[in-house]
Please model this.
Amino acid sequence: MRTEILTVELQAAFARYLGVPPAAVDANEPIALLGLDSLTTAQLALDIEERVGVSVFLNELTGDETIAQLAAMAAAEA
Amino acid sequence: MLGAAHRSAAELELALGDPLDPAARVSLGALLEADEREEPPAAAFDALRDWGFHAHLVPEECGGRLTSFDELLALVRVVSRRDLVLTTGLGSTLLSAIPIWIWGSGDQRRWLAARLRDSGAFGCFAVSERDAGSDFRATSTTAAQDCGGYTLRGEKWLIGNASRCAYAVVLARCGRSLSLFLAVPDELTPGTFRRLPRIRTVGLRGHDLGGMAFEGCALPETALLEPAGRGMEMALTALQYTRTMIAGMALGAADTALRIAVGWARTRTLYGRPILAIPAVRDLLLGGFLDILTGECVALVAARALTLAPRRTSLWAAVAKYLVPHLCERATRDAGSVLSARSYLREGVAGGAFQKVARDVAITSIFEGTELVQLALIASQLRQLAAAGQLFAPGERGDIARLCRLDAPAPRWEPRATQLRIGDPGGDELVDCLLGGEPDGWPDCERPVAAELRAHRDALRGEALALRAGLAARPAAEPDLETARRYCLVHAAACCLEVWRHSRGLLGDEAAAGAWLALCLARLRDRLGGAPAAPAGLTADACAWMLREFEDGELFSIAPFALATATAEESPCGPRS
Model:
């Protein structure tokens, strides 16, 4: 359940930076393919921490991870 | 300069004396000698210590005198018009202090405040590495966590104050992420820490640029700046403060370059008259003067925003860091053209000071992120604004009058309230102003000036609209540095216009009349791809103002700021050939 909530939150955060509706952000697509540059990704990680209260260090990931995987990792750490 | 924010700068200016006076406490002559010897200007650093400059690097809440950043910007200009080696050393100290002020423990803050206030210590921002430049994520220095602390391994390179610092803030990889650590060389185990040899440079020959090697260096647990894992974000946040101050460094250096050239042009006679009468010479000098004024407006807004509109500073600090050095380096080059062969001599006019300024100022567009790095930061944030629909659209607008009305200092800095923010600036209310219709209370000025201002404002509004449309059409494209450059010019135009509109009643007659503003806007439009020639009357007015500021011994600035005068009989800033 926690993972699902986090997935929705992450989708919303990515959507804001991509300028698209949350539903248009595919939670199963590698984040590197979503079209964000590194600075934006790093700011996004800070926002996620603020909103969701878990630290997602996007800057250390390879970019192959999907939002669904990130949510599962964050849920496990929380 | 104006108001309470500039009182301390006026005091410092008097304390340091006229730099062209050999008897001054800090003279260009002595600074040039240190440069020739490739040694730090020790006596000048002592003069700054004696005056209490280091207290201005310590926030008020830690017992210092650092209040607002517009005050610090004015101090930086005053020192930089003498020697950028001084402000580079102090700038690295500030940059490495800021993370401690914001994220340090009470003990760390007390320790640092005492070191700066009492002994004028130097600090080192130990982030850069040989193979990691602006790519923080390539950082290879590690901090391994062990019982009761950390073990540092790796090398930092091209870092300021490396051999003389009393403290260093070190970026290191700890586990999966990057963190910042406070290292105090005096407290490190001998044999585990080495300072690397000084690195030789084209300019700033008296600067202490070098490196550090950590070879299994033990740090206590308390060395970590919390939150762990946010070292890159902390470094990028801290840089927003010093990048804004670098604009003041460039402005100070360009003032000296232009001052030397104007003094020369007034007295140098060729073809039977002073070369100032040659239109091409006058245009070069006036262009430099106007670019200094434009840079000043951009820098003032960025510095005031650090405490008035902190969310904007991830964007505006990058704009100031890109544009102001760019303009000031151009102004310096043009001053060199006026000096012609004299610009190449290490003696003669002003004791040969020009060539040193020209070598030194070149650093301002390089360090703490080159022009390309700043433009990439700006391009990324413009896309963020476009995606969020905040691109020059009224959102949570800051108070433009407070940003641009210069008689009240910006609020004092509260380091503990500073948030990590490396992007997502939320908007640009200055450019919003351009996009709006004609502003309320458009000042009534003389007809030719008013007509020029309206025409330029309309054209710049068109530029802003085109930028918005272009970005909206390509929200996820690769970083577009040309769009970022154009945005900087439009933002600069908005800064000039709004500072003038809101502070006009506080300025002297020449600044209030607005000829300079019309000419600055014309130059910005020219950089955007062409502007009609300016009416001769405006050019003559602005040129007369530049010469009046020179003759009265005032800083080249939109607001009056008296410079220290020489004790000798000769003209305070005239050429010494």
In short: The mean pLDDT of chain B is 93. The longest strand of chain B covers residues 149-160. Chain B touches chain A through 28 residues (CB under 8 Å).
